């Protein structure tokens, strides 16, 4: 039996494949935004932080993807003739090349906090709510969203709703940013700590805010691409989108449980939906990979030449 038929391999590899599509779609968006900045004299701080965060997210993802792929190939994945070890060595340097990823993520957090502070400029209380509602939640209220969501949440049905995916990720992002700002203010204003020390004590929180911001943008871009895709491509692309969105929510399920947005059954429902979606991906796996148009010259590994066996 081909190893791709094993559920363990599907659950390890197919969410990574879906994320590859999501990041490739977002890459084009980021490149377009950067090109617009380069053609103008204005300095766009948000685009700079977007590029920094996206670089960090992509390079960490590529390193993890090569590692998981190598492990899925067993001992054959460690053989030099299959080139995965060389790919891993190449991917490793990019986590610090052109800027350490952890430092680049702090740029994203700083930019988000600056935008948050600007939202407070006019009215310290209502300004924060206005910023959080408009920037993240759209028409949803910051206060009412958890109650509205809990009232209508049905795990298997709700997790298939594209609107629910985006609302959940945006709410998490908004709440992470808001609580980060409160932590920093408390440490600096109440505890009278040095600004650098306060920032240093919140680095884990800053990383979560920044990563969540990038993942939310990736989900938004994926939804836009799906909506604008030709009718012939939508069925195949929608499967990958669903797998990406479900996988992100599954990885973040602890946070949603802690904040009482998920029930105890939500994690089980997500796991089952991911498994069933992986079965759909399996039927088109080679077509999904071939769509990247990888040149034959890059497929010289022995495993790649005999992929039908796997």
Q: TL;DR?
A:
The chain has helices at residues 7-38, 45-72, 84-93, 101-120, 126-137, 145-152, 155-158, 162-190, 195-201, 203-228, 234-251, 253-258, 266-282, 285-290, 302-305. Helix content is 73%, strand content 0%.
Descriptive report:
There is one protein chain. This protein has about 300 residues and is mainly alpha-helical. Helix content is about 75%, strand content about 0%. The protein has helices at about 5-40, 45-70, 85-95, 100-120, 125-135, 145-150, 155-160, 160-190, 195-200, 205-230, 235-250, 255-260, 265-280, 285-290, 300-305. Helix 1 runs antiparallel to helix 2, helix 4 crosses helix 5 (about 125-135) and helix 8 packs antiparallel against helix 10. It is globular, with a radius of gyration of 21 Å. The model has no long low-confidence stretch (mean pLDDT about 85).
């Amino acid at each position: 039996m081909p190893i791709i038929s094993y559920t363990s391999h599907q659950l390890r590899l197919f969410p990574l494949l879906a994320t590859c599509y999501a990041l490739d779609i977002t890459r084009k968006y980021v490149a377009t935004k950067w090109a617009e900045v380069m053609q103008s004299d204005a300095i766009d701080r948000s685009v700079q932080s977007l590029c920094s965060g996206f670089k960090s997210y992509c390079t960490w993802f590529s390193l993890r993807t090569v590692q998981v792929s190598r492990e899925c190939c067993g001992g054959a994945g460690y053989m030099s003739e299959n080139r995965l070890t060389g790919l891993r060595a190449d991917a490793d340097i990019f986590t610090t090349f052109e800027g350490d990823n952890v430092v680049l993520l702090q740029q994203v957090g700083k930019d988000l906090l600056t935008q948050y502070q600007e939202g407070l400029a006019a009215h310290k209380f209502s300004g924060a709510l206005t910023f959080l509602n408009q920037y993240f939640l759209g028409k949803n209220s910051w206060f009412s969203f958890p109650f509205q969501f809990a009232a209508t949440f049905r795990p298997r049905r709700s997790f298939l709703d594209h609107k629910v995916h985006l609302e959940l990720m945006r709410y998490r992002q908004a709440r992470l940013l808001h609580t980060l700002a409160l932590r920093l203010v408390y440490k600096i204003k109440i505890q009278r700590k040095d600004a650098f020390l306060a920032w240093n004590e919140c680095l884990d929180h800053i990383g979560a805010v920044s990563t969540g911001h990038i993942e939310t943008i990736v989900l938004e871009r994926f939804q836009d691409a799906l909506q604008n895709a030709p009718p012939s491509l939508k069925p195949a692309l929608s499967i990958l989108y669903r797998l990406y969105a479900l996988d992100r929510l599954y990885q973040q399920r602890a946070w949603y449980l802690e904040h009482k947005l998920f029930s105890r059954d939500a994690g089980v429902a997500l796991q089952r939906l991911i498994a069933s979606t992986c079965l759909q991906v399996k039927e088109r796996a080679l077509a999904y990979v071939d769509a990247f148009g990888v040149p034959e010259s890059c497929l010289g590994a022995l495993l790649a030449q005999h992929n039908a066996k796997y």
